Amino acid sequence: MTALAPQPLSPLDGRYRDAVAGLSEYLSEAGLNRARVEVEVEWLITLTDRGLFGTSPMADADKERLRGLYRDFGPDEIAWLAAKEAVTHHDVKAVEYLVRDRLAALGLDAVAELTHFACTSEDVNSASYALTVQRAVLQVWLPKLREVIAVLDAMARTHADAAMLARTHGQPATPTTMGKELAVFAWRLRRVADQIDSGEFLAKFSGATGTWSAHLAADPEVDWPALSQEFIEGLGIGFNPLTTQIESHDWQVELYDRARHAGGILHNLATDAWTYISLGYFAQIPVAGATGSSTMPHKINPIRFENAEANLEISGGLFATLASTLVTSRMQRDLTDSTTQRNIGVAFGHSLLALDNLLRGLDSISLSRDVLLADLDANWEVLAEAIQTVVRAEITAGNSQISDPYALLKELTRGHRVGAAELAEFVQGLDISDAAKQRLLALTPAGYTGLASRLVP
């Protein structure tokens, strides 16, 4: 058998590449290296701006040329770094050499020794991961999550008054509306999205064991913690002043737990949408040319929700692994976080793919109100709750001598299908006031939705 040419091993880089491409701008190896170059360049500019060690601030034109190293980062830099790392066997050192090489090409080699000055690799890495994860989450992943929320909001408003039979424990229960049920998902997701939006993205910049020892050895007069904080916050991320060699990753643990939480809610949405389709509550809109089954021509399968469900399970597992692994580092540093963090993009990739499928799925269904109404009309026994509650109120008000209204309704309805006529006859025979009887006789399953429609924002 002829061997295949090298192919993407991950479906995220193959079959589903277009759906997750936005994340690779930040969470790929190239995206990480570009951020590392950014951190190295900006630290160099910061040191010279302060005139440290006899330097002078660079001319604005030189700063812009230097910043071009990361702004124009592309195939040439990617190839250069790959070749250099093959020699150094150290990714961050390769980035340092790249910056030094470009400084010489720009005629700025007089300040080359300030490249990576007093830094441990994890100073650069923590800032780079904070930048790349922040940008990926806030610019790609979170906007897609908010798209799903916006669609749910719109559907909730459209279907706010669409009465449907609730199913608690899978059994007929007090009616609700489809809009209110969709609004529940939107509310849950918005809450978690807001938590993620307000979360921290932290970096450290304090040297080999978080003590600024080398910095003080070079110049004990500089307030290095203050300068480091100013530098990190100038990048648009938060500063962690108290660390070991690594930034402790607690902000990442919080983020991945929240992303996993959002994924759990989305998984619940996917399974509920799938179930509503199976009940006929939602009809799937046919797509011209699409095939549902290779052998059953009539079928339209809810594949978007099934795909979302599977990808959310994968991303949830990865987020859980990221959170549980990154929270621990032996003593002042071990390397377990290095490989772990390289899978951040994989976790968000499967989550983003799920969001994309949910959006497509929600866009391809329409509510079958006639099915909802037929289902309600076949389950008049759900009004038993209303009847026994009204009877209890009547007993309390002194308008009834009934001794156990719950047992009375249980005997009438449990395990039985009761229609409109039977319930009306039952209500007519109750020992309650005429006003209470009229309220109950006016009830229908479709009208017994309480404040559901008004709960939709």
TrEMBL record:
<comment type="pathway">
    <text>Purine metabolism; IMP biosynthesis via de novo pathway; 5-amino-1-(5-phospho-D-ribosyl)imidazole-4-carboxamide from 5-amino-1-(5-phospho-D-ribosyl)imidazole-4-carboxylate: step 2/2.</text>
</comment>
<dbReference type="InterPro" id="IPR047136">
    <property type="entry name" value="PurB_bact"/>
</dbReference>
<dbReference type="InterPro" id="IPR020557">
    <property type="entry name" value="Fumarate_lyase_CS"/>
</dbReference>
<dbReference type="Pfam" id="PF08328">
    <property type="entry name" value="ASL_C"/>
</dbReference>
<dbReference type="InterPro" id="IPR000362">
    <property type="entry name" value="Fumarate_lyase_fam"/>
</dbReference>
<protein>
    <submittedName>
        <fullName>Adenylosuccinate lyase</fullName>
        <ecNumber>4.3.2.2</ecNumber>
    </submittedName>
</protein>
<dbReference type="InterPro" id="IPR008948">
    <property type="entry name" value="L-Aspartase-like"/>
</dbReference>
<keyword id="KW-0658">Purine biosynthesis</keyword>
<comment type="pathway">
    <text>Purine metabolism; AMP biosynthesis via de novo pathway; AMP from IMP: step 2/2.</text>
</comment>
<dbReference type="InterPro" id="IPR013539">
    <property type="entry name" value="PurB_C"/>
</dbReference>
<feature type="domain" description="Fumarate lyase N-terminal">
    <location>
        <begin position="15"/>
        <end position="308"/>
    </location>
</feature>
<dbReference type="GO" id="GO:0016829">
    <property type="term" value="F:lyase activity"/>
</dbReference>
<dbReference type="InterPro" id="IPR022761">
    <property type="entry name" value="Fumarate_lyase_N"/>
</dbReference>
<dbReference type="InterPro" id="IPR024083">
    <property type="entry name" value="Fumarase/histidase_N"/>
</dbReference>
<feature type="domain" description="Adenylosuccinate lyase PurB C-terminal">
    <location>
        <begin position="329"/>
        <end position="449"/>
    </location>
</feature>
<comment type="function">
    <text>Catalyzes two reactions in de novo purine nucleotide biosynthesis. Catalyzes the breakdown of 5-aminoimidazole- (N-succinylocarboxamide) ribotide (SAICAR or 2-[5-amino-1-(5-phospho-beta-D-ribosyl)imidazole-4-carboxamido]succinate) to 5-aminoimidazole-4-carboxamide ribotide (AICAR or 5-amino-1-(5-phospho-beta-D-ribosyl)imidazole-4-carboxamide) and fumarate, and of adenylosuccinate (ADS or N(6)-(1,2-dicarboxyethyl)-AMP) to adenosine monophosphate (AMP) and fumarate.</text>
</comment>
<keyword id="KW-0456">Lyase</keyword>
<dbReference type="Pfam" id="PF00206">
    <property type="entry name" value="Lyase_1"/>
</dbReference>
